[in-house]
Design brief:
- It comes from Candidatus Giovannonibacteria bacterium RIFCSPHIGHO2_12_FULL_43_15.
- The chain is of the alpha/beta class.
- The chain folds into two domains: 8-112 and 230-239, 2-Layer Sandwich (Nucleotidyltransferase, domain 5); 123-224, 2-Layer Sandwich (Nucleotidyltransferase, domain 5).
- Helices cover 28% and strands 28% of the residues.
- The protein has helices at residues 49-56, 96-100, 110-119, 162-170, 174-192, 209-216, 230-236; strands spanning 16-17, 20-27, 31-36, 39-44, 64-69, 72-74, 77-80, 90-91, 105-109, 129-135, 139-145, 148-149, 196-200, 220-223.
- The strands form three sheets. Strands 1, 2, 3, 4, 5 and 9 form a six-stranded mixed β-sheet that branches.
- The chain is globular and about 50 Å long.
């Protein structure tokens, strides 16, 4: 993990609140990542709940905790997580004491934590409308206006076309994938009319894919700067 400094614009990933170090965890369909102090931890997302809890137990204890999760969030509970089935009705507060040392806990959707982190690293005006889109196991969406990430509940649910996207993604035909996403993502862009879109997610790690999709989107397109750490950093920023 990398510690979030007091000014996240100058940091690669540390989050402190006063003298307290905050543990930020990003739980996605493929990976679980965390930032706390000067450490960055990363694990493959397990197939079952018992293994999942064992991974959480490997994070440092005794800290204030922020968690970003791919799914529908209700307080500290995940109502559904389409790509992590065992998280249905999973309540992080129920394991907060044994796993996190009983400290304070906040939970949010992982696309919102991604955008929250990336907003501090990019030259976008606080007056700008900004979309954050993650292209990974699923398609994450978040929206910010006047520098604040909005809570748009339907963005917590998967798009109807997500399974079709996953099939094309797994075919490794990046040109076909970029062409497919052109129509789908431009519909979201047309509806929310952002001044910029920040793109992240594991698929952007494919060579040349960012340049392919950038050409197709009808708006200014920015590549995420925090990379794989963005979600965990944004989760820690829930306590900012």
């Amino acid at each position: 993990m990398v510690v979030l400094a007091k000014n996240p614009k100058k940091s690669s990933g540390n989050m402190e609140r006063g003298k307290k170090i905050i543990l930020g965890i990003d739980i996605g369909g493929s990976n679980i990542r965390g930032i706390c102090g000067n450490k960055f931890l990363e694990f493959n997302t397990p197939k079952g709940e018992k293994e999942f809890i064992k991974i959480l137990e490997r994070f440092p204890r005794g800290y204030t905790v922020g968690i970003g999760v791919a799914g529908v969030v209700d307080g500290t509970k995940i109502k559904i997580s389409p790509n992590i089935k065992y998280l249905k009705n999973f309540d992080f507060s129920a394991i907060g004491g044994p796993v996190f040392g009983g400290k304070r806990l906040k939970v949010d959707n992982d696309a919102r934590t991604f955008l929250r982190a990336e907003l501090v690293r990019h030259s976008v005006s606080n007056k700008d409308r900004v979309l954050g889109i993650t292209i990974g196991t699923g398609i994450g969406r978040a929206f910010a206006e006047n520098g604040k990430v909005k809570k748009i509940k339907k963005f917590e649910y998967p798009e109807k076309w997500e399974k079709e996207y996953q099939k094309i993604r797994d075919s490794k035909n990046d040109q076909k994938l970029a062409e497919y996403l052109r129509g789908k993502l431009n519909l979201i862009i047309d509806k929310y009319k952002p001044g910029a879109v920040i793109l992240g997610g594991g698929v952007l790690g494919r060579r040349g894919f960012f340049e392919k999709i950038k050409r197709y989107l009808r708006v200014r397109v920015i590549k995420a700067r925090f990379g794989a750490k963005a979600g965990a950093i944004g989760a820690a920023m829930l306590w900012k």
